[in-house]
Amino acid sequence: MFRKSNRVTDVAIKKRSRVPGVMITQYVEQLPAGKSTPDFTRKPMPTTVQEGKKAFLKAMVSGEPAPTVTWERNKGQVNDPEKYKTRYDERTREHILEIPSVKPDQADTYKCFATNEYGKAIVTATLNVIEVGFKKKGQPGTKLTTGPKFSLSFLSIIQQSMDGEIDPKLWELLISAPKKDYERICFEFGITDFRWMLKRLNQLKKERADEQAKVVEKVDKVKQIEVKPDGRAEFSLDMTLCDPNSAINLYKDGTMVPYGDDEKSKHSLKKKGSTYVFSIKDPQPEDAGFYQVDVEEANVLSTDFQVPAVEFIAKIKDVKAVESEDAVFQCVLSTPLNSITWSKQDSSLEHGNKYEITVSEDKLIHTLRVKDCKMEDHGAYYAIAGITSSSASLIVEVTMCGFNKFFPFIPHSYPLTFVNCNIILYLPEVAYGFYFVLTAADRGVQFVSGLSDTVANVGERAELSCKLSSDTSEGRWYKNGKLLTNGDGVTIIKDGACHRLIIDCCKEDDAAVYRFEAEGRKSEATLNVQDPPTIDGDALGKFAKPVIIKAGENAEWKLPFSGGAPMNIKWYKDDDELLPGLNVKIDTSATKSQLRLTKCQRKDSGEVKIKIKNEFGTTEAISKLIVLDKPTPPQGPVDIMESAVTSVEFKWKPPKDDGGCPITNYIIERQQVGRNKWSDLSEISGSNPSYKDSDVDPGRRYCYRIRAKNTEGISDYLQTEDIQAGVLRYPGPPAAPKVVSAFKDCINLSWSPPCDTGGTKIVGYNLEKNKKGTIYWSQVNQGGPITDTKYAVKDVFEGAAYEFRVSAINLSGAGDPSIPCDTVIARDPMMKPKFKDRNMKTFVVVRSGNTVRLHINFEASPLPDISWLKDGIPVSKHVTITNSDKGSQLLIPTSERSDTGIYTITVKNLAGQESFNVEIRVTDDPKPPGPVELDQNIQGTVTLSWSPSPDEKRDDRLHYMVSKRDSFKRTWRTVADNLFNNKFTVVNILPGREYYFRVFAKNDIGLSPPSESPVFGTEKEKERKRLDFQSPPSFILPLRRRTAPQGYECHMSCAVKGDPAPRVTWYYNNISLNTNTNYHITNVCGVCSLLILRVRAKDNGEYKVVIENKLGTAECSMTLNVKGEETCTRFKNHT
């Protein structure tokens, strides 16, 4: 069942599962798309197995994401892998809890949990275990089996029903099925006596009706699923919706199935008036399952579609029958089936007066007998087994005796045949024979299905029904020949061709022969009214409560009942029949029975049962007798937990029988061996069966008595054996203490327990110390024994040397001390100085007059010596140095420019030293430079010069910055920075614009005020003379000689000039190389290069470069010598 919510939050929403008995908790209000809470598509079933056999609990779950399945039990754990095994079967998709060898103590209620992130589902199943050798009276060696043949007792079935452990599918099917199908459905689930279920079924029907009433006004004519002759599987119902727009959902095995409204869909729904017909097109084995129809969230129909693997070995064959005779159809199946479906056209046939349906003992041969054939019985008949069908025709032949009533002139010897409402007459006297086709006359109303014998219990509803061939025919009902009307305690209903007689509450005098007549046709059936024994629900609930009495008192049970006489009443105690005797009194009448047990003892506690039986059935009721008494003695043997010098501790087991109520106290007595007197020691709580006697003398022997006490009295005693208290025996010395760590104010020690404990447990240790140079040992632990095997000694002096020893203490006292440990000095461990700040500044700028503060953190042990230097010499007196254990601080309260320098801190101790440098620069805002002068020597440039800033001599890091603004853009732009001289030439001066310049002095503090220049302006040139730069080509840098080894690359280049740019051509032995791909030739800005990637012997020779333009030609050559050849290089230059 799918639920919808509006908001997403962490909640706990209880949901109803489609499988009864399953409880679902949803963790979120709104499930994400495609996600769902866990649910059980098949829950684990109750199981009964024999001791020593295997037991399986199986479950199938659904949910997205896939749930995690775990198992628990009420009275124990299931985490022992030898007793319980869990696994998942991929093929069957089952989660299985396997118990390899069942023990009686494993009989319990088991819980199965399915959990994912959106919720969890819980279901329970009971495991019953039959102990080996267990026998009931009259039933030696009882064995439980499963399947169609059940030996499970009627009591066990009732107990299952009380525990809610019947397959929930059975309840769903019974709610939707008519009463006539109850027996068949129960038999399919292995239940042969279902009368005890009717009360629970009626309650479920009422609950289901209350749910349906919210969405449906009326539900009627529910038809279970069956395969039709046309091959479709259909199930239907009549219902009227409260809201025509209500959603109608179809589910298969708990999963929603989409359906259409036309017959081409796999699953379809057709609506005719108030009739809803669901159908499955071309059903296959995978379509088998448990189908349910819901309107909104209310279930209105449940049906089980089973597809057995069966075929027809012998199909039914066409049959001819003479009117008033019987016609028989018979088929043989390949697999035994309890029943198949017989139908004529679209109507299913049922066993009754008209049709007799039988099955052979081996369930393979199925037979349909059509009784007293009439002309309207002709037509096609179908046998349907699973999704396989077989069809045949019935032809009814009319006898001449009947035909002569209408046509007396035709001889009796002429054959007649009835086909499709026509009579075919054959006249043999006519040449070649002659056929007449005569239309048969209407024979009036006929019974399509007659009345069937019915059995009903007193107080229940009974119904007799039949169906005529005409919707307009009226009929009359008779009881033992007497005409019945609606006023005679019955309800007569006519629904088209169906006629029903309903008795709402049957009485014994309603048993009779009932007959229905219509237009000369009649059908009879017998109603048998049974009166099985019944017990009122309130009386049964009162009877089931346990009877609790004290020992010696009487117990009594009374139970009223009703039912048809004679009654057989029997009482049982733990399955043994009780017979009247000295302590057993049984008083039984026609309406009640009473049992009285006198002078009951504790052993009489157990189960009390009454069984009431008559010819119509059996019922039982169970109660329990609890007799309270004093407990039995505590159980031995007594285990001695401790036998010390000053105490004795022992324990025992609780009584085997607590007398029916909890043990409240134990009473302890003691006797010293050799004396006769017993003394009361104590009365302790009953929750802890152990005692510690702390008042004993060393070496003496004692004996103890233990009694259990509850609200009913005190038990007999359990006496212990003699228990001897311990003697004085001191422990041996522990091992010498070990120094874990030492500091100036604390020394940490540890030691091992002694090998000899003195026969009792060690309760603590004493630790002593000795200061080196003295003979006195003082105890460190003044506050009591040390319970651990380690201790931190804090009462030490820095730099002092100590020895330590330790002694163990048991119940007898302190033993001898250990040998002293090695001498240890109270001081911190040696550590080389190390600076802690990884991001310490190495350069600091301070404005003159401000405070300079440097804080350097370090760690070192022992305490180091700290020194500060400025530029390699000690710092001035006005510099304050403050040192601590963790760092040092340099402070200059009012800094001056003379304080600029490199400061070095050195931290040194016995383990080593470490230094760190910090450059401090003390300065101030720079003063501006002097006046700026302008000078133009080259067109398009202007040279700025200025007087130096007064701070230039005092600050070696002072420099200048120049900015420019012209009359066109009117924004200042930096044109030079980091100038350490007093002159700068500005380029890109355009004619026709005015320029303004500023010069700033700049240091580590910032900028000075600017020094501004005069306005610089140029006039735009009216006419510019063009210059002629043309020149013939020439070599700036000629080729250089090259010698290259074979297999290596060779690079040769030269530089050329000329205007216009000359064309460059490379030659090898007077052969142009410009188009040869074996050479890489480039010309970048007059630099001409040729690259040979891999020199070979044949590359040896003369290389030449020729450059030319319109003004002339020039060339340059060289000879490449490859190593291994005679080297000779010649240069030729031609112009």
TrEMBL record:
PANTHER family: IMMUNOGLOBULIN-LIKE AND FIBRONECTIN TYPE III DOMAIN-CONTAINING 1, TANDEM DUPLICATE 3-RELATED, TITIN. Pfam families: fn3 (PF00041), I-set (PF07679), THB (PF18362). One of its GO terms (biological process) is sarcomere organization. It comes from Seriola dumerili (Greater amberjack). It comes from the Eukaryota. Residues 38-128, 308-399, 428-528, 833-923, 1032-1121 form the Ig-like domain. InterPro entries: FN3_dom (IPR003961), FN3_sf (IPR036116), Ig-like_dom (IPR007110), Ig-like_dom_sf (IPR036179), Ig-like_fold (IPR013783), Ig_I-set (IPR013098), Ig_sub (IPR003599), Ig_sub2 (IPR003598). One of its GO terms (cellular component) is M band. This is Immunoglobulin-like and fibronectin type III domain-containing protein 1. Keywords: Immunoglobulin domain, Repeat. Gene3D superfamilies: Immunoglobulins. Residues 633-728, 733-829, 928-1021 form the Fibronectin type-III domain.
